[in-house]
Design goal:
Layout lengths: L7 E8 L2 H11 L3 E8 L2 E10 L8 E6 L12 E9 L4 H10 L5 E2 L8 E5 L5 E6 L3 H4 L14 E8 L2 H11 L3 E6 L2 E5 L8 E6 L13 E8 L2 H13 L8 E2 L3 E7 L5 E9 L24 H6 L10
Parallel strand pairs: 1-4, 5-8, 9-12, 13-16
Antiparallel strand pairs: 1-13, 2-3, 3-4, 5-9, 6-7, 7-8, 10-11, 11-12, 14-15, 15-16
């Protein structure tokens, strides 16, 4: 198959508190808040995007913030952990930073042997910082602001009862290759040269089912370089028997959604047009951005953010 994704576009999770989420991902982890908006299909749910300063694909994590929503339970048939890449020599610095921020972190090498720090965000979402010296995994989409900063996504973990089916979809239809296997793990690698090229699939023997809510990953998005590529994938996925949505305009990219064979929600998102479509590059994330259909509710929605996110400067 000639058409292949270059890796992860973004990962979207669920949070319960706007201020706490923003403080953790910007102050503690040092990511940039590149977009503040709402879920276009549920305006009472705020949607925050974090990544490098330009919001390059492969660096982005996003959160639906559901105040008073249910707490999730991590388990079978879910994406269960987000990993970020950092320079290997920075792990000791990061451990001190996390301890100083009262975040419990432990040395826990990734299953394939890479050094890593394991911890959780304020809602309990499992995270890891992975020391990556491989130039494919370590290459940042943009210039680093510090020698220690997160270089983008490293990988995502998928916990499934039938790993063969998940691996087949990612390899046969999305163009990943199987790079490494060690029971119960299998590592897939995309054809790209930037961050976010790995997906780790774990067999969920005897694991209880998960329940979606705060502290859980909602969906995993991979990259489509062009609109045409996305249309081709949409057709291929439908021909394979999957229920794939029509193309959704998310302002900053266009998306199609489907559930892989074990039930994890996936997305294929276009690289273009990017986050600077409604804000200048040096002002990303400073103000609430809304589609025209929600402009009449701006005053109410802005009031819901007051004092909870970093102030525009």
């Amino acid at each position: 198959m000639s058409l292949a994704t270059s890796g992860l576009h973004h990962i979207t999770a669920i949070a319960s508190d706007l201020g706490r989420n923003a403080d953790f991902y910007t102050r503690v982890l040092g990511l940039c808040l590149v977009k503040r908006t709402v879920n276009f299909e549920a305006r009472d749910v705020y949607h925050l995007y974090y990544g490098d300063a330009a919001g390059h694909p492969g660096t982005i994590v996003t959160f639906f913030v559901r105040r008073n929503g249910p707490t999730g339970r991590i388990g079978d048939r879910q994406a269960t952990r987000i990993r970020f890449g950092v320079p290997p020599a920075s792990l000791a610095w990061w451990q001190r930073r996390l301890v100083d921020s009262e975040v419990d972190a432990s040395d826990e090498p990734v299953w394939c042997g890479a050094p890593a720090l394991s911890f959780a965000d304020p809602d309990g979402l499992p995270l890891q910082l992975v020391g990556v010296s491989d130039p494919v995994a370590d290459r940042s989409a943009g210039a680093a602001r510090s020698p220690h900063e997160i270089r983008g996504l490293h990988s995502v973990e998928l916990l499934v009862p039938d790993p063969d089916a998940t691996v087949a979809l990612f390899t046969d239809l999305l163009g990943f290759s199987e790079a490494l296997a060690r029971r119960p793990w299998r590592r897939l690698i995309a054809a790209g040269s930037g961050p976010g090229v790995f997906v780790d699939v774990r067999a969920a023997a005897g694991m209880s089912s998960g329940a979606m809510g705060a502290g859980c990953i909602h969906h995993v998005a991979v990259r489509a370089q062009t609109d045409h590529d996305q249309i081709v994938w949409q057709d291929r996925l439908r021909r394979s028997g999957l229920d794939v949505t029509d193309i959704k305009d998310r302002s900053y990219f266009r998306s199609i959604y489907f559930h892989e064979p074990n039930g994890i929600r996936c997305e294929i998102a276009t690289d273009a047009p990017g986050f600077a479509i409604d804000e200048s590059p040096d002002e990303l994330g400073r103000r609430l951005q809304l589609p025209s259909s929600l402009e009449p509710a701006r005053q109410t929605l802005e009031a819901g953010l007051a004092g909870l996110l970093p102030s525009p400067t």
